[in-house]
Design a protein that fits this description.
Major capsid protein gp5 fold; 12 helices; alpha+beta; 416 residues
Length: 416
Amino acid sequence: MIPVVETKSSHAQPSQEDVASAFEEFARAFEAFKDTNDTRLGEIETRLTSDVVTGEKLARIDAALDAAKGRLDRLTLDRSRPPLGGGDAPRDPAQAEHKAAFRAYMRSGEAPGLKRLEEKALSAGSGPDGGYLVPDNVEREVLRRLSGVSPIRAISSVRIISGGQYKRAFSTKGPAAGWVSETGAREESASPTLTEMSFPAMELYAMPAATQTLLDDAVVDIDAWIAEEVETAFAEQESAAFVSGNGIDKPKGFLAEKTVEDEIWEWGSLGAVHTGGTGFPADDPSDTLIELVYALKAGYRQNAAFVMNRRTQSAIRRFKDDSGQYLWAPPTGAGQAATLMGFPVVEAEDMPDIGADTCPLAFGDFKRGYLVVDRAGVRILRDPYSAKPYVLFYTTKRVGGGVQDYAAIKLLKFSA
């Protein structure tokens, strides 16, 4: 059964007071978490075990902390979204014509206007079989929203292309270089070692459904509706592929790359720091995090971030340094990221949980390490027949991705 979501033209944006209240709730939850965890650690020191009641209380507060952070993130994201339907009409007559033709197609299926525009633009692959391009402002809004809810896209490099794939040459071993005096002999430079990297754009689709009543409502902002409907569907699929996609009909995730021990790392694989067991060591568990951080070269650490899911983050929240300070720190304000050892924490639910032979933590400069490729153009095909009385909107975009610098990302692997 196809889910149908009736959305209004525009929901009220949260106020600054709503965001401030959510941030205060999150801060109070973290203070309660610290107090309870300190009590648990004190019980372990005195009795070599913690009280079951204390452990259960800590788990409840930890869940409340995650819920408060999720609410804060949603409010912050909603507040940053500009309304698509408001404001002045596009100043460019061509954009205004495209927008009017697109709305006529979405509401009633009238396609002559879009056909004429795409024939004028010599657009390939348009028409009833391939769908029609959405207006530029809707495409930009879809991509902007994806950057807000797709965690790996938000921290990676993004390149827009017009073809089916993006290719680049990358030097795995540069030419010899060095210092020499003005009259000293120069050794002949070695040729650089280049490799070609290819990032094909794969097709990603979503199929939101609407009733004809919704489409007939003149108050409904069709541009905002389609952007909201495809946002979550696209973000969920992208996020999973960027983390662990196998590269077949989807982007290749960084966890799908070959991993080797960091001591023997070589180009074409990701270096992994091993914990020595299926979990964090009982004594000084934070030492593995320090080792992971310093496995990355200094040039990459400047813009590095941790990537993990909320369950791994829950375990790490309890770690302290030698001075008794928590290594994990809450965000300093709304819209900011939590930090671990001073580095931002990116929460990606598609990262695996802690377990044998898993890599639940990644650390690196993803701007340099991972590339997301978007092919320009989001297409929509209106289908009023397949699921009567609902109207389906088959929405497609092409996106690819893969590791572009294997030295920029390190993994923490739970194995001996």
